[in-house]
Every structure is written in structure tokens, then in C-alpha cells.
Amino acid sequence: MKLNRDMNILIVGLGLIGGSYAIALKKKGYKVSAITRSASSIEYAVKNGIIDNGTTELDEALIKSADLVIFSLYPKVFKKWIADNGHLIKDGAIITDVTGVKGCIVADIQELLGERVEFIAAHPMAGREVYGVENSTDAIFKEANYIVVPTDKNTEDAIELCENLGWELGFKRVTTLSPRQHDSMIAFLSQLTHCIAVALMCTNSNPNIKEYTGDSFRDLTRIAKINENMWTELFTLNKHALLREVDAFMYQMGRMKTMLETDDIEGLKEMMILSTERRSEFDK
Amino acid sequence: MKLNRDMNILIVGLGLIGGSYAIALKKKGYKVSAITRSASSIEYAVKNGIIDNGTTELDEALIKSADLVIFSLYPKVFKKWIADNGHLIKDGAIITDVTGVKGCIVADIQELLGERVEFIAAHPMAGREVYGVENSTDAIFKEANYIVVPTDKNTEDAIELCENLGWELGFKRVTTLSPRQHDSMIAFLSQLTHCIAVALMCTNSNPNIKEYTGDSFRDLTRIAKINENMWTELFTLNKHALLREVDAFMYQMGRMKTMLETDDIEGLKEMMILSTERRSEFDK
Predict the structure, then answer these.
(1) Gap from B147 CA to chain A (nearest CA, Å)
(2) Closest residue by Cα to residue A255 from B264, B61, B250
(3) Cα B49 to Cα B58: distance, rounded to the nearest angstrom
(4) The dihedral of CA B172, B177, B179, B185: what is its sign?
(5) CA distances (Å), origin B74, targets A52, A158, B2, B233
(6) What is the predicted ipTM?
(7) Do residue A260 and residue B235 have CB atoms under 8 angstroms apart?
(8) Residue B10: which H helix or E strand, with range?
(9) Residue pair B178/B102 in contact by the 8 Å Cβ criterion
(10) Beta-bridge mates of residue A149
(11) Backbone angles phi, psi at A265, to 5 degrees
(12) Is the separation of the CB atoms in B8 and B67 below 8 Å?
């Protein structure tokens, strides 16, 4: 099953990512409406042609008319929304999401919805360091990965629709992972790196260091500007996978430390050669 | 004292940094010669107008004619060169360097040279991930810091000359630090970040991760492609300062780990808020 232009697409949560979805879908000629908390977001989005129409109300007719509902909410808010309002979604509709953790929500939400409405999870690995629909742009998808995260409850139809959504949004690559694979990968590639950047910024209180920072330190800490509400939620919801990665990283830091202390030059060189080899693979 | 165009400038070690110095100085009309190990580097540099003349020999007349000698060598090779050949430098000449660590070499080299020749240390905080004179370009200095690292043995004249060299090379900022301040700053801003990037690349052996890496992981690990000979030398020569920074960073990582384990959401948020605050200062 593929997206078609007769479908009514509803976005719940019109922030940076929800807004960027809307922009990409409208460009391709889809009908897009939105429900979000802030009246000014709706006003801005309608005025700028980002959505066709929207509301801050729990508009039952609007929800009922949607064939595809895209949830762009924090994970816990998403789960609560489904628990409270899932019954308003029409039979046979498909819902998807943009949530950065999966294991803790996908099975629960599929359980809440039962057989009537199908939830196919997805994670668009794109973002900016700014927030809100006003900063939305589909340019963030251009070089990014879109990951479809099905469970054994999902149908081929829904998986195909979700993949098609990723391509229509303009992602560079669309792939598929299980919730467990997804969370483990995200724990390493995204959450651990945010932990490192935050810990590094907390390490040195000397305000003068900024006079001397070069590009490499700036690159490494760009993600240290972080939305503490979203990221504590993502961290704690993926706690076990993240702790495994934190331990694995600290083990390697500990190895380097011991090598330094004991002047184990060959050991240090081996780590650097391995690191160079692996990192070079990224540039191929 | 300032640089003047009648001075003979000799660069010892014509790699990426030595070559980039030569390019910048020649553009400003200075006379630049070079001594380096590789005949092809000299050939390339002369042919491309990067230097006026050069040799792979220990040309005593050339060394004797130099008013300013710039050493662009690994720290241990630099020290050995001065021990073996320092007597060939003429009375009253000034020498400087580009070495990334200072405490372990500056005092020793000043001691080796005695009163006859003055060594004023400097660290151009610029580089690329590629090597050799063929990759030289003065563009790397444009947004970078140049740090003059004097000791109490240095004269005002030599410090002023060295600062002037930084400006003539086209650096964005020229500052002054003591060897101890320099090494502590570099341990945190440069060496610790390289340790982190290397340890991170050694943490995960799954070759498939590269399919999912986003910009933030790529930014964070760009410096994980590392010259193992140069960096093990820089690490071990600044071992004590670096170990202090590694410990301080691992302490903060450990704090985050404990907060995660104990669901200390407020603690995690505080770290993220501090991190965001400090990192935002860089963008001002």
C-alpha cells in the first residue's frame, strides 16, 4: 500500500518535526491537517501554507476523517494521548510516529489500539538545535535516515505505507530495524554521544576555554546544547540499552587511561589505528 | 621587534604546517627557505613557489644565514635536532616552533641553547586530517588561534616578534599562555577530545552502524581519524595534565551513569542545563 493524495493526513503535535513533515507532504500535494497545543503554531502554519487546516481542540470529526495519523509528541505524551483518545481514530486507519525510542512504547501502543487501528512505528533521524513549527524545514530530511520499526503485529501493507512515507518525505535512506535493534543502535549513536557531550561540558568550569576552542571541540560539543525535558525522557525510557553503551564506552576510556599511566605506547597506537580504520569507513 | 622582509626565514620540517607557514609568509613577501627529510617535498615546494629554496641536507651555510628558524617537527625530533645541531644557528637568531605540547620541551630547549640563541615557543592551533606539504594551505589559519608560550627566560623583543609572526601568518587571534596553562588547556580542549573520539570508535564493532550515523555522530568522531605516531607522542609528553582531564571527564560520565541508574531526572536535567548554558557561550 502506498500513500495517495485522497488520503487525509493528520499530524498530532506541530513542532519542528511535525511541521517539517507537513511542509514535505504539502509540497508533494497531500492534504495535511494538524492538532497541536499552541494556537500560534496553528495560526503560523495555516498562514504559511504549511498545513491546510488545524486546531488546538480535540476535534472528533477531524480525527475521525484521518486515514493516516502522524504523532510527533514526546513518548509519554504520545502514549497518554492514545490511552485517552485512541478510540476517536477511525477503523482501518494507520498511525505512525517520530519517537526516538521504541521498545518502551511500540508494544504498549499496539496493545492499546487492538486490531481496529494499526500502529507502525518510525524514527526520522533528523533534527535541528532549534524548536517549533517556525523553524520547520524539509531540508533536514535530505541527507538523513528514516527507520521503519515494525513488530510481528504489523501487516505488510502498513510497513510498505510507512516506507513510502519516508521516501515521500525526501529522506536519503529508508531502512527497517526491530524495536530492540533500533534502541540499541540509538543508544550508541545518539544517546551515548549526547551523554558524552554533556559530561564534557560539565567537566571544565573555566569560562576562558572558549577563547581557545578549535573546530574539533566545537564539532564534538555541538549537541551539548540539549533540550533537557525531551532528552531525560528519551534517556530514561531507553535506560538499559543506554547504560550498556555507557559502560562499554567507559571501559574503553579506562583502557586508554591505563595505557597512558603505564606508557603503553603500542596499546595506544593500536586503539588509534582501529579508530582511524573504523572512522574512515564512514567517509566511503 | 617585528618581522622584516630582509630577514632570512628558515623552516625546518616542511610538512602540512611548515608548508602552510611558508605559503603565508611568501605571500607577504618574506624570504623563506626550508630543510626537510624528503627530497620530493622540497622539489614540490620550490616548483610551486612555496619556498625560495630548500635542501634535504644539513646545510650549514643556510642554517647560519637564518635570522628566524621555525621548527615544524615532532617534539622529540625537535629536541634531538637542537641537541645535535643547535650550535649551527647563528648568534642572536630567534627560533620558534609549532609543537602541540610545551612543558616538556620549552625549558629543555632553552637550556640547550643557552644565551646565544633565543627560543620563543608558539602553538598554531590549526590543522587538517591530511598530511604533507602538498596539502598545505594558509586558509587553515584564518579562523584559528595562535598561542605564544613564553617563559621568564624570554625577552620582550622575542615575544613581540613571535606575536607579529602569528598576525603575519593570518591567524584570527593571537594570545599568550604560560607553558603550564597551555598544556592544561590543550589537555582538555584537544587531547581529551581525541581520547574520547578514539575510545568511542573502539566501543562498537558493529560495521552496520555506519548505515545509521547522523551528522552529530560524524561531527563527534571526525577527529577519530588520527595519526597514531604524532598523537601518542603528544599524549605521553603531556601525560599528567591529560590524565587529570581524563579523570575529571570520567567522573562526570560516572555521575550521569549513577543518575540514570537511580532515575535521578532532576540531576540529569541540571547537567543538561549547565551543558547548554556553557555551550551557548561559544556561539556568542
Answers:
(1) 9
(2) B250
(3) 22
(4) negative
(5) 63, 59, 27, 8
(6) 0.88
(7) yes
(8) strand B8-12
(9) no
(10) A121
(11) -60, -40
(12) yes
Q: How many Cβ contacts (< 8 angstroms) between chains A and B?
A: 262
Beta bridge partners, B121, equal B149
Angle, helices B193-203/A193-203, rounded to nearest 10 degrees: 160
Residue type for B61, please? A
Cβ-based contacts of B195 with chain A (< 8 Å): 253, 256
CA B157 from centre of chain: 23
What 3-state class would DSSP assign to A53?
A: strand
Closest-approach residue (CA) in chain A for B216:
A223
- Does the beta-carbon distance from A224 to B188 stay under 8 Å? no
Q: How far is CA B79 from CA B82, B86, B94, B165, in A?
A: 5, 10, 16, 22
Angle CA A240–A244–A246, to nearest 5: 115
C-alpha A279/C-alpha B224 separation (Å) is 6
Alpha helices, H only, A66-154: 75-85, 106-113
Rounded Cα–Cα distance for residues B189 and B181 (Å): 12
Distance of alpha carbon A77 from alpha carbon A68, whole angstroms = 19
Q: Distance from first CA to last CA of chain A, Å, rounded?
A: 34
How many Å is the maximal CA-CA distance in chain A? 71
Indicate the pTM of the whole model. 0.87
Q: Are B223 and B194 in contact (CB under 8 A)?
A: yes
**Which of these, A171, A66, A193, A68, lies nearest to A123 by C-alpha position?**
A171
Of B189, B235, B263, the CB nearest to A236: B263
Q: How far is CA B81 from the centre of its chain?
A: 18
Q: What is the pLDDT of residues B1-17, one digit of tens each?
A: 899 999 999 999 999 99
Nearest to A76 by CA among A233, A228, A183: A233
Per residue in A216-246, pLDDT (tens digit) is 788 889 899 999 999 999 999 999 999 999 9
CB atoms within 10 A of CB B11: 29
